[in-house]
Fold:
Amino acid sequence: MGKIAPSILAADFSELAAEVNRIRPQADLLHVDVMDGHFVPNLSIGAPVVKCLRPRTDLYLDCHLMIDNPGDLLDDFAKAGADSCTVHVELGDPRPLFERMRAHDMRVGLVFNPETPLEAVLPYLEEIDILLFMSVHPGFGGQAFIPEVLDKLRAAREIVDERGLAVELEIDGGINLETAPLAAAAGADILVAGSAIFHAKDPLAAASAIRAAAWPELVPT
Ligand code: DX5
Ligand code: ZN
Structure:
């Protein structure tokens, strides 16, 4: 069963809880983009916002850490109520971070940039719950989907299925009505969408349309 993860990066931060509740019926997870202005050239939100959201939604909080020092902040995210944290493989050996996440009972995510080869994440497939494919350069919403990432996604899907692994394949960046079916066909389990949902006139309908475009066979007739 495919999942939709609206990214609050594109939501109106002044009305965050209302924005989240509006899309709740079509959301399986809530994607939270954490940016530090160093690892990526943009600054967004952090654990204090996760803490405020936690009592306002029952959604799984899927925290994507685009920061130089995830190790310094994992405790804060766990205490704030994050369900998983996803760390970038480009920072170096992620295993110590995985251990800390497990110690906090968080699910473990690993993410890699469009130009990073699949080989960089393969050694960790057995140790993670989510593998996140960046289909744009991280840092900003509203960018165009990079189609070359689909080759990595297809290859990973095959490996995961062959080995019977439980890791979910998630894709993030430029997902909309046109690209969602491509990502789903390539084997994505979770589609992150920011601007295509929250910048739409009717975000709930937009999320529903993305789900139907991605997985038409699952939509009741
Ligand atoms: C980009 C973030 C994405 C972003 C996606 O660095 O990781 O999650 O919100 O935004 P859209 O869906 O607009 O490309
Ligand atoms: Zn993200």
